[in-house]
């Protein structure tokens, strides 16, 4: 079994993004007079997990030498006031920005996501970007799904004509990765079966046992067991769950699945860093788009 080291791959991506940005900034003789890309991170309240995720994102910005600013609001902010701040960011100098989820219970996330300019939506959640992605058009791609593709691509894991089972149908992971792998994207078109925790257990097991690649994102520790995969399967574990002991684990039974899988992502150190790499890649794309840069 080979571990898919998302932490190492993400560092390579950040290094390349920095080099590509440096290249364009240095091309002044071609008419470019550019400042470095910039990102804003909107953080509402004091959620400990969100604070941790934001720190990881700022470290990635520093690695790629992307400018950033954290904009904080108390969790008492109203939906109206937060939307007003989003509208200001849409008109700001920032190339892209995110609103860190989850939001306080009194704020409906889609009401905020839908107000973000599609051109600055580096999380890839806006309906316009999601629709373009579904149609196979160039867009800001949902960062986690984008990171999964980049990880598969890095390790030369074929997806073209492969059978992929995606367990989980969230708008953040399950739906977009199912669509992206089913489309003719960078890593090739797959045959995708979409399941979730409501899929009858025997049917889910029957489908996952036939899969070349299993992607699990349901938020339940130990959900995917070794008897649910075939020998040598690629397993992408997107789950991040904290046990009562404080240990972070994924959605698969790592110890048992690792004895049977051909490739497996660890938790932590697998898809988490690749999600941030996807965010940085989207920021880079937004910067190029704003400055009319073509490669």
Give the integer mean of the pLDDT values.
94
Strand count: 11
Report the total helices.
Answer: 10
- Share of helix, binned: 40-55%
Describe the protein's architecture and organization.
By secondary structure, the protein is of the alpha/beta class. Helices cover 40% and strands 15% of the residues. The protein has helices at residues 6-26, 48-64, 79-90, 109-113, 127-134, 143-154, 174-182, 201-210, 254-257, 271-290, and strands at 2-3, 38-44, 67-73, 96-99, 163-167, 191-195, 213-216, 234-237, 241-242, 248-249, 263-264. The strands form 3 sheets. A 6-stranded parallel beta sheet has the order 1-11-8-7-5-6, with helices on both faces.
Task: Give the topology.
Elements (H helix, E strand, L loop, with lengths): L1 E2 L2 H21 L11 E7 L3 H17 L2 E7 L5 H12 L5 E4 L9 H5 L13 H8 L8 H12 L8 E5 L6 H9 L8 E5 L5 H10 L2 E4 L17 E4 L3 E2 L5 E2 L4 H4 L5 E2 L6 H20 L5
Parallel strand pairs: 1-11, 2-3, 2-4, 5-6, 5-7, 7-8, 8-11
Antiparallel strand pairs: 9-10
Helix pairs in contact: 1-2, 1-10, 2-10, 6-7, 6-10
């Amino acid at each position: 079994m080979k571990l898919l080291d998302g932490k190492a791959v993400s560092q390579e991506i950040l290094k390349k993004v920095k080099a590509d940005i440096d290249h364009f900034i240095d091309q002044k003789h071609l008419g470019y007079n550019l400042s470095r890309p910039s990102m804003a991170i909107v953080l509402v309240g004091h959620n400990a997990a969100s604070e941790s995720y934001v720190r990881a994102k700022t470290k990635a910005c520093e690695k790629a030498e992307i400018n950033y600013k954290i904009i904080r609001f108390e969790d008492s902010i109203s939906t109206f006031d937060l939307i007003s701040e989003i509208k200001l960011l849409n008109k700001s100098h920032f190339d892209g920005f995110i609103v860190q989820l989850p939001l306080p219970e009194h704020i409906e996330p889609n009401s905020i996501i839908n107000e973000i300019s599609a051109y600055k939506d580096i999380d890839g959640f806006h309906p316009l970007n999601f629709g373009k992605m579904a149609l196979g058009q160039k867009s800001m791609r949902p960062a986690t799904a984008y990171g999964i593709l980049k990880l598969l691509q890095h390790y030369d894991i074929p997806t073209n004509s492969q059978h992929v089972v995606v367990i989980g149908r969230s708008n953040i992971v399950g739906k977009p990765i199912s669509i992206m792998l089913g489309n003719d994207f960078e890593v090739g078109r797959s045959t995708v079966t979409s399941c979730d925790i409501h899929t009858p257990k025997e049917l889910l097991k029957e489908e996952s046992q036939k899969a070349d690649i299993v992607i699990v994102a349901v938020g339940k520790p130990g959900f995917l067991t070794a008897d649910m995969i075939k020998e040598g399967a690629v397993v992408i574990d997107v789950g991040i769950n904290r046990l009562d002991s404080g240990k972070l684990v994924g959605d698969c039974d790592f110890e048992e699945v690792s004895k049977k899988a051909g490739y497996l992502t660890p938790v932590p150190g697998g898809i988490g860093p690749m999600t941030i790499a996807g965010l940085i890649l989207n920021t880079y794309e937004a910067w190029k788009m704003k400055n009319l840069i073509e490669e």
